[in-house]
Design goal:
By secondary structure, this protein is mostly helical. It has 7 helices and no strands.
Length: 153
């Protein structure tokens, strides 16, 4: 059974136990731990017999039944199956190194285009509008000027 069904049954039993007996349980642990689920099932049946709550016994039976069924086999991604098969055969795994982008790597002259105070590369966006023209040099930034709106960070 899918774990979602186990959790749904455990959650329903949790709500019934909380309302009828005041017992608080851990739903996720109940759906994943066989021993805890067996103990909660035993407790629910005991309280159902003592206080006359047949719905507690019915949901305890459902929990016991679903916990007795084995979990479905976990699906393995295809990439992992193939890589495991290659490893099992002992074949060398060919890994191609990423090819650097020569054009963008050559376009950055770090000594001229990096702001010394921040270390970020200067934007070339303004060049589209004529702001990055060498005939109009950029003014140096005043170190005492506020860096943010109204000086707030």
């Amino acid at each position: 059974m899918p774990s979602s069904e186990k959790i749904a049954i455990a959650a329903h039993l949790h709500v019934l136990l909380r309302r009828k007996t005041g017992r608080v349980t851990d739903t996720e642990w109940m759906a994943s731990n066989q021993e805890y689920a067996a103990e909660i099932t035993r407790f629910a049946r005991e309280k159902a017999a003592e206080d006359g709550h047949p719905d507690l016994a019915a949901w305890a039976d459902k929990l016991e039944e679903i916990m007795a069924t084995p979990d479905a086999k976990q699906r393995v991604p295809l990439v992992r199956m193939v890589s495991d098969a290659v490893k099992d055969r002992g074949l060398p795994v060919v890994s191609s190194a990423p090819v650097p982008d020569r054009q963008s790597a050559q376009s950055v002259n770090t000594e001229e285009e990096v702001y010394p105070e921040s270390g970020f590369i200067e934007s070339t966006f303004g060049a589209i509008f004529g702001e990055g023209d060498p005939n109009h040099p950029k003014k140096p930034r005043d170190p005492n000027a506020p860096r943010y709106v109204k000086g707030l960070r």
